[in-house]
Amino acid sequence: MTFSDLLVMLAYLTALPLLALGLAGRQTSATAYLEGHGDLPWWALCLSLVATETSTLTLISVPGIAYGSGMVFVGLALGYLIGRAIVAWKFLPLYQSGKMLSAYDWLGQRFGASMQRMASSTFLITRLLAEAVRLFAGMLPIAAMLDAAHMGLPHAVLLGGIMLVTLFYTLCGGLRAVVWSDSIQFGLYLFGSAACLALLWHAAPAGVLHTLHAAGRFDLFVIHTSPFTSSFTPLAALLGGTVLSVASHGTDQLMVQRVLAARCLRDARLALMSSAVGVGLLFALLSGVGVLVWVHHGGATLHQAGFATPDAIFPAYIVQELPSGLRGLMLAGVLAATMGSLSATLSAMTAATMGDFAAPCAWVARKLGLSGLGFARVVTLVWAGALVLCAGMFAQGSQSAVLVGLSIAACGYGPMLASFIAGMAWPGLKARTLAPAFGLSVPLMVLAMMYLHPYGKPLAFVWLIVLGMITLFGLVGLHYVIQKKNHR
């Protein structure tokens, strides 16, 4: 670690919170803290969506996956584009039709408060675990750099430090600070990734494009494998990517909170569809970094190059290969990705807690003698502590962190998406039928994630979503069959 690296990182950690708070302005109510006044421009919401969706998992894991499999994440992005179009056409009008604080307000209007709270609880639990994976993954390259400089710190200290900086601007500026900081952070790690790509391209040998093409590193899909154990076959990427995008951007509070903050339906659609293009370009950029790192290592396999997991590849390149100054900038970019998704998660979880559990929250706030804004900040602090504690659970493991995080989220995505679809397409469906089916479907998907291993490999996360939808629809249908027999 050089003085230039430290200077760049400290400059980032100092400037970002101040700039985000300056753009956000002062928050005077819980509504402003959680909703951002409803006047944020669509392009800022677009950048925030991309920054929230991609996060550290993307920055760290996508180059590692590209190292072994090529440009497969770009193929997955094609499914994302189709999915967002469906959300923009079918889901956004539901959210823009009334004043909603969370994505699950609509389920409450359709099926009652119990279903709304059940769905929100599922979001809170799965998001807590999935974001803990992100937080731990974002700490790894920082820990590696400090260790290389003989300045190693315990993981708990690093996790706490990242959380404290993030909490500073999140607590003070609310959703507006989150959106503006996301936009700045996304620009930083996009620039850093582009700089890495340029350096790798400059150092690549003559005929590198021919080498990559001959090795299949430009392939958008994995062909010779089962679609049930890989998320990157044509069927899994296009169909599964579509379903994943509809579930995440149509029913996940983490993403829906952004479009709820748009000025109007048109701006919400612009932000959503533009984010599809942005994430596709970022996937292409990071995949390009991964395949060029493969060339840099002479086409060696993961283990031949001395890496235990795919997630170790890009951090090792940052720490060992980048010049001084740029290394600090790239590590600041990793911090940016971590803090961007972390602040977005804290804001979304606070909004879901306050919106979907309004009565209990109001009772606790009265007992504590807090205003709505003060209690919202306390809720943010509670979730921050829970995230730091859970992050330690993922210290071990050989799977790519991005796939682990997506698999955890997918356990709730399938039943959640099926509930929204059933509510829109089945006017006669009642909560007494849907709620038990939902309550049983989610733990069944957790069991499927843990124990359903076709061909000896975990079920691909995109099929967990599809399986979750099929399970909920099947349980709803079974309820009607049993009910019909009992009436005879």
Helices and strands, with pairings:
Layout: H1 3-24, H2 30-35, H3 42-69, H4 72-96, H5 105-111, H6 113-148, H7 155-203, H8 208-214, H9 234-251, H10 253-260, H11 265-296, H12 313-321, H13 326-356, H14 358-368, H15 372-391, H16 401-425, H17 431-451, H18 461-486
Question: Concise description?
Answer:
This protein is mainly α and 488 residues long. It contains 18 helices and no strands. It has a single domain, classed as Sodium/glucose cotransporter, CATH 1.20.1730.10.
CATH topology: Sodium/glucose cotransporter
The radius of gyration over CA amounts to 22 Å
Determine the fraction of residues in helical runs and give it as a percent range: over 70%
Q: Provide the CATH top-level class.
A: Mainly Alpha
Shape: globular
**First-last Cα distance:** 77 Å
Count of strand segments: 0
Task: Please give a structural write-up.
It is a multi-pass membrane protein. InterPro entries: Na/Glc_symporter_sf, Na/solute_symporter, Sodium:Solute_Symporter_SSF. This is Sodium:proline symporter. By secondary structure, the protein is mainly α. It has a single domain (3-395), classed as Sodium/glucose cotransporter (Up-down Bundle), CATH 1.20.1730.10. It contains 18 helices and no strands. Helix 3 runs antiparallel to helix 10 (253-260), helix 13 packs across helix 15 and helix 17 runs antiparallel to helix 18 (461-486). It is globular and about 75 Å long.
Which characteristics define this entry?
single chain, 488 residues, mainly alpha, Sodium/glucose cotransporter, 78% helix, symporter activity, cell membrane, Na/Glc_symporter_sf
